[in-house]
Amino acid sequence: QAYVSYSNIAALTHLAAKPGWEITSTLDDIKIWTHEEGDVLSLKVEMQVKIPSHLAFALLSDFTFRQQWDKHFLSCEVLQAVNEDEKIYYVTSPPMTGHKPRDFVILVSQRQPCKPSEPYIVAVKSVTLTSMPPSPEYCRSEILCAGFQIYSDSNSSCTVCYFNQVTSGVMPYLAANLTGSSKSIEDTALECMKFLE
User: Fold this and answer.
1) Rounded to whole angstroms, how far apart are CA atoms 192 and 173?
2) Which class for 147: exposed (0-12), middle (13-18), buried (19 or more C-beta within 10 A)?
3) Model's pTM, two decimal places?
4) START domain location, by residue (predicted)?
């Protein structure tokens, strides 16, 4: 368990630090980058939020709040609180046209910064739980690496970076956005900022 949680945080930190991110869109308070490597596409969304970083961390690390701002989350329940920094959630997503609804079993690991210059981290990856085998109604999907890094800008503002490493499995959701516009990603980011503020 310690290894899985460490590798979850490490994978997100590694993804964030990769060179070669290309900016694809800038709004006033939102920037969107992509990073391509083989058949893996990574996404980074940066938001300027007018609340303290510790508050953003508290709100974003509790995934039961997620469906309040992310329409890709239909339901979210805690399956297991491993310890105060690690929880395993069961998430369902609404069906896309012609697809079954999707479900995920994810480990969410959170870390507070050791130094003021370091970010708060909320890392997400899929895990396997024998108590939650795939069910025929859902298409069990995998999150390779996703999550948030939250940097403090001042006592009352912070920068929230959302990362998601996308494989072909998650592509139906993003393909429309990346080819046409990144509108849905921006909408979700705006909803997230509204929720936080």
Assistant:
1) 18
2) buried
3) 0.89
4) 18-166
